[in-house]
Amino acid sequence: MARPPTAAQRRIIEAADPATGRLRGTETQLAGLVRLRLAFRHPRPPHDYFLTPAGHRLREQPETPDRTPGRTEERAPVPKQAPGVFAARVGGEEAPEGDGQARVHEVRSAWQGLVEMRRITNPDGSTDRPCGWERAHLVQAAALCLEAADCPPATPDSEGYRVSSTPQPEAVAVRHPAPDGRRACAAALEQAGWQVSEHTEPRTGVRYLLASPRRL
Question: Fewer CB within 10 A of the end CB, N or C, for the chain?
Fold first, then answer.
């Protein structure tokens, strides 16, 4: 589990540009946020640093005062879960415990952060197609698209989508037992900038979706 950021790192996150997530700090401080997966370095000059979706979520989470004696000015973050460990539901997990609206907020924040990452890192600033981060994290990216579109994932007790990797480059498989469910998943992925086609497994006859990030 990733360690929480220090108070100094938290201040850098809170001071990020509210629109772009652009960060200011020393190279050492910013590199530390990259290691925590709360920031990324833009591949093009001037190679500025920006918040990742996890960084955007952390910035929105409230802080509580540090109760250590003699430390009245320091404030330490107390997120509901460790920063950087948020993961979209790929299907098959137990449903998250606690307030369902809190999960909705987390997913919405993650999706907004991902859209902003697209705007910043796609060469033409496009937000309607996946960016490099998504191509490097295919299963999580596709799952986030589905969860943000309110497609229900499978749980041990209910049917829903399941996202898995495939031997094909830049492609994931999305399985859903119901034709309507597959159609809803396909529509959500296409709306998010993915190319989707439906196939049949030769040995089992099971229908599934093959989804790839759209490039153009």
Answer: C
The type of residue at 58 is L
Output the domain CATH number for residue 146.
Answer: 3.30.1360
Is position 3 within any domain?
no
Q: Which residue has the higher pLDDT, 188 or 32?
A: 188
What's the rounded mean pLDDT across residues 170-190?
Answer: 97
Alpha-carbon span 109 to 54, nearest angstrom: 9
Give the burial string for 166-179 (b: 16+ CB within 10 Å, else e).
Answer: eeeeebbbbbbeee
Instruction: Find, among 104, 100, 101, the residue nearest to 112 by Cα.
Output: 104
Q: Which amino acid is at 206?
A: V
Identify the pLDDT of residue 166.
Answer: 93
Tokens for 14?
């809170």
Per residue in 30-69, pLDDT tens? 888 988 888 888 877 778 888 887 887 787 765 544 433 4
Answer whether residue 97 is part of any domain. no
Helices (H), the chain: 7-14, 27-35, 53-60, 100-121, 132-136, 138-148, 179-191
